[in-house]
Design goal:
alpha+beta
């Protein structure tokens, strides 16, 4: 039967099962499929445009560095062939954090490290208000996650901790004069690595960390290493001009989901258990890397 003869309701149902990367091809089947695909297609093209903008603005590593555990490297070494990278399209990420499920008490107890503390209601509200005032768009789910201890406790961070920092403004040298801002949300356990959420007034965002992995300043504090008080723009301190950022992921939720899956599978492999269920579902969706982008960073293999 031709797609043109199918009822709209059925075509819309089909669309909900198409991965984002396939929606462009589906929209080309005929005018009816295109018309019904427009909302999903536009969202997909918007994400592609945003990702391209972030990769053009910042250097980026040649592999998806999800955490300091080396967990993805261990998964590849134990379960996959060379050149595979994770694809999370099957999760249909939409900001509701549905993938962030609690472990059984027995499994959760194996994670002995502190995971960090949820930000206070006041701190989250200040971030939301400041972002709105500055024309920045927080990723859907970010404010809920950073302010909810139960959600933070569901992660496997291997000693890294969730910690909301102050919002600060990038210098023109850091983001090409796009007027973006960065807020720290994750710290390495030794204090030698920090991850931040970058946002600009065009609605783009990405996860960044210091270009120099050993740089202790990456969003930890905006004033402790200044030789003089930092410049202030609209009540927001300007970042240390000597910092340089790299983009480690163009979507915050995708990066966090990778942290979640990689971390718990890391724990499963080290405990000598079989990778099954939702963990194996994640592994099944690794795919061949389509292209290699140069970043000069070497992967840590356990």
């Amino acid at each position: 039967m031709s797609f043109s003869l199918l009822p709209n309701e059925l075509i819309l149902l089909i669309i909900t099962h198409i991965p984002p990367s396939g929606i462009e091809a589906f929209a080309l089947i005929n005018t009816k499929c295109h018309a019904l695909s427009v909302p999903v297609l536009n969202a997909h093209l918007k994400r592609k445009h945003a990702a391209a903008a972030m990769y053009a603005r910042f250097p980026h590593p040649n592999y998806p560095r999800n955490s300091s555990l080396g967990s993805e490297a261990l998964i590849k070494k134990a379960l996959l062939e060379e050149g595979m990278i994770p694809s999370l399209e099957y999760l249909h990420l939409n900001g509701d954090l549905h993938w962030l499920q609690a472990q059984t008490p027995e499994i959760a107890a194996e994670h002995i490290w502190e995971r960090g503390r949820a930000a206070s209601v006041e701190a989250v509200q200040k971030l939301v208000v400041d972002a709105e005032r500055l024309g920045l768009t927080l990723p859907t789910g970010f404010a809920t996650f950073i302010g909810t201890q139960d959600l933070i406790e569901r992660l496997h961070l291997g000693g890294s901790t969730i910690s909301l920092g102050e919002l600060f403004k990038c210098t023109p040298e850091q983001d090409g004069g796009k007027g973006g801002h960065v807020v720290r949300f994750l710290c390495d356990q030794q204090g030698c690595g920090y991850w931040g959420l970058y946002m600009d007034t065009a609605g783009h965002s990405c996860v960044v960390c210091a270009e120099d992995w050993s740089d202790f300043r990456c969003g930890c504090c905006v004033v402790d290493r200044y030789t003089q008080l930092p410049a202030v723009h609209e009540a927001i301190a300007e970042a240390d001009a000597t910092l340089r950022f790299i983009c480690v992921k163009t979507e915050w939720e995708e990066w966090m989901a990778g942290m979640y899956f990689d971390g718990w599978i890391w724990g499963t492999l080290w405990a000598g258990r079989e990778v099954v269920g939702w963990e194996m579902e994640y592994v099944r969706h690794f795919e061949k890397q389509k292209d290699t982008v140069s970043g000069g960073h070497e992967e840590v293999v356990l």
